[in-house]
Amino acid sequence: MRLAGPLTPVPEGRGQREAWTPGSDGRGAGGLEFEVSGEKKLGIQIDGWGGMGAQIPGAPEEGRLGQKEEGLGVQTPGSEGGGAGGQDSCFPNSVLHSRTRKETPPCLAAPERLRGVTMTTPLVILLLTFALGSVAQEDQGNKSGEKIIDGVPCPRGSQPWQVALLKGSQLHCGGVLLNEQWVLTAAHCKMNEYNVHMGSVRLVGGQKIKATRSFRHPGYSTQTHANDLMLVKLNGRAKLSSSVKKVNLPSHCDPPGTMCTVSGWGTTTSPDVTFPGQLMCTDVKLISPQDCRKVYKDLLGDSMLCAGIPNSRTNACNGDSGGPLMCKGTLQGVVSWGSFPCGQPNDPGVYTQVCKYVNWIKETMRRYR
To answer: Which Gene3D superfamilies does the UniProt record give (predicted)?
Structure first.
């Protein structure tokens, strides 16, 4: 996860309204605009939490993944799954340039519509070319990319509802514990089977419970990323304690300007990936839909919530998908997607707005208990 140090709330500006606008460096709506053979292209990437064949972030030392590994793959627009064993055909966290298992290629799970145009395979290839070429470009440009954001370890016990969805022993996505048997995460994190980790700020120790049933929101769209929520039912019951607690669902939607905390074990650097040794936290502010649409245009749907800090690189990143956005002690958002590379100033993170789904969450848990 790309995290900043202890954050100071942004001043209100004495009546001035905070505005989120595309940067002046060529970035367009919702991503990084770059030129290939004279044509401008727009790249967008989902925030995710994937090890992609790397060591899990519980290892004694941080591990960095190279950008010139083999085994890259993409999920083409409109293909929602159908891989071996009936699983989705990709890891859902879109680390386009990271190492991956050859039998499980990463997908491009961000919204496939770019200004109303469906992303095509050639554009996907261009995105991969751009991502893989970023190392070579680093020597000629700004070298601050490796340290764009400093991580802040979450205080022990501060996020007791945070879970990790593991594929075997590898990091896959984040999630939130709703009760002893249910976890809420992002719909694009769908797998056939999950190992659910909880109760430790590192991905060692704590509790691990298998899950084999998951329920995507029926309105989830791989093209627009609308309704990006999924419920996972644990095969066993979680043991509640001081380090394992149920999250509080919201009774209302918090307004823009509310300060919140996002947490996860995702990468702390972008475009290359470096996984932290423990759970990381950062503070962000809720952004109004009007201001967020100045960046992401029509990619921002009614079910989506934006959060960030103006003129800051603070945000969630690869490996944090499905994790919590906590505002005043309640779950207001689930990490969904954002621009690529992560950490671009004035590109807020995009979350599924949980306050609009409380009835669906409760009804689904009742139906399948």
So the answer is: Trypsin-like serine proteases
State both tokens at 84.
């071996």
What pLDDT digit, counting tens, does each position of 8-46 carry? Answer: 222 233 333 334 444 433 333 333 333 333 333 333 333
Please identify which of the residues 188, 197, 217, 225 carries the catalytic annotation: 188
- Token pair in block for residue 208: 């691990």
Annotated catalytic residue 321: yes
97 is catalytic: no
Instruction: Answer yes or no: pTM beyond 0.85.
Output: no
In order of 158, 176, 189, the CA distances from 217 in angstroms are: 28, 16, 12
Assess whether 228 carries a catalytic annotation: yes
Q: What are the residues whose beta carbons fall under 8 Å from the beta carbon of 180, sequence distance 6 or more?
A: 234, 237, 238, 239, 240, 246
Q: Which of 2-6, 44-48, 63-67, 247-251 has the highest mean pLDDT?
A: 247-251
Q: Is residue 296 within 8 Å of residue 214, measured between CB atoms?
A: no
**Inter-CA distances, 14 with 11, 17, 18, 43, 260, Å:** 8, 9, 11, 36, 21
- Domain architecture of the chain: domains with CATH: 159-245 (2.40.10.10), 256-354 (2.40.10.10)
Residue 131: φ, ψ to 5°: -65, -45
Cα gap 331→162, rounded to integer Å: 11
Catalytic residue among 47, 200, 214, 228: 228
200, 214, 303, 321: the catalytic one is 321
Q: Which residues contact 278 (CB under 8 A, 6 or more apart)?
A: 57, 153, 154, 201, 202, 265
- φ, ψ for residue 145, nearest 5 deg: -60, -30
Phi, psi for residue 325 in degrees, rounded to 5: -110, 105
Q: Which pair of tokens denotes residue 77?
A: 């627009």
What are the residues facing 41 on neighbouring strands?
34
E runs forming strands in 217-328: 230-234, 259-264, 273-275, 280-287, 304-308, 324-327
| DSSP state, residue 106 | B
How many CA atoms lie less than 13 Å away from 21 in the CB half-sphere?
A: 6
Which residues on neighbouring strands pair with residue 283, listed in sequence order? Answer: 261
